[in-house]
Amino acid sequence: GIDLGPLQPRLPDLLRTPSGLIELAPPQLVADAARLREALGRPADGFVLIGRRHLRSNNSWMHNLPALAGGTNRCTLYMHPDDAADLGVTDTAIVKGPGGELVVPVEVTDGIRRGVLSLPHGWGHDRGGTGQTVAAGRPGVNVNQLNDGSALDPLSGTAVLNGIPVIVGPAVSPAVVG
């Protein structure tokens, strides 16, 4: 290798924070922690929906690659076995959120807590004109359809995408999904 000499400190020159230090907990974030703690203490009606990712999906751009699009359906709803038994959900469920509802295949797993559901984002390739012929063959569902967009994180101003309140039950008739 090439010896470039001893390392020279550069971080102090590059930091543009008022303190000149790395600010891991800026005052705005610390002030917002109380609101978040209070929200955690409120019981949710129904279920809480969180997202997830899959190694072979990587936020949807891999859904249109034939070599990566095969295998089992990855756009499924994770549900705890006790919740599934309580609701009579077996292989397909209807999920209703503030913005709409979806019929989705279910994977019953003890890898998720009771009261929590998980549905991956980046699916819903059933719209025409996108040129995603491989992805359209296994479209999945668009989790964004469950959200009405009104829930915003006050600190960042971004849409809340996790912890969405939803109601779930067995699908009345098995629809063609995913």
How is this structure best described in words?
This protein is an alpha/beta fold and about 180 residues long. It has a single domain, classed as Barwin-like endoglucanases (Beta Barrel). About 20% of the residues lie in helices and about 20% in strands. The protein has helices at about 10-15, 25-40, 65-70, 80-85, 135; strands at about 45-50, 75-80, 90-95, 100-110, 115-120, 165-170. It has a six-stranded mixed sheet with strand order 2-4-3-6-1-5. A hairpin with a 2-residue loop joins strand 3 and strand 4. The model has no long low-confidence stretch (mean pLDDT about 85).
List the main descriptive attributes of the protein structure presented here:
single chain; alpha/beta; 19% helix; Barwin-like endoglucanases; 178 residues
Largest sheet: 6 strands, mixed
Number of domains: 1
Computed Rg: 21 Å
Order of helices and strands: HHEHEHEEEHE
At CATH level 3, the topology is Barwin-like endoglucanases
Distance between the termini: 52 Å
Q: Which strand order does the major sheet show? A: 2-4-3-6-1-5
Structural class: alpha/beta
Overall mean confidence score, pLDDT: 85
* CATH architecture descriptor: Beta Barrel
- Using the alpha-carbon principal axes, give the shape: extended
Give me a quick take on this structure.
The chain has helices spanning 11-14, 27-41, 66-69, 81-87, 133-136, and strands at 47-50, 77-79, 92-97, 100-108, 116-118, 164-170. With 178 residues, it is α/β, with parallel strands linked by helices.
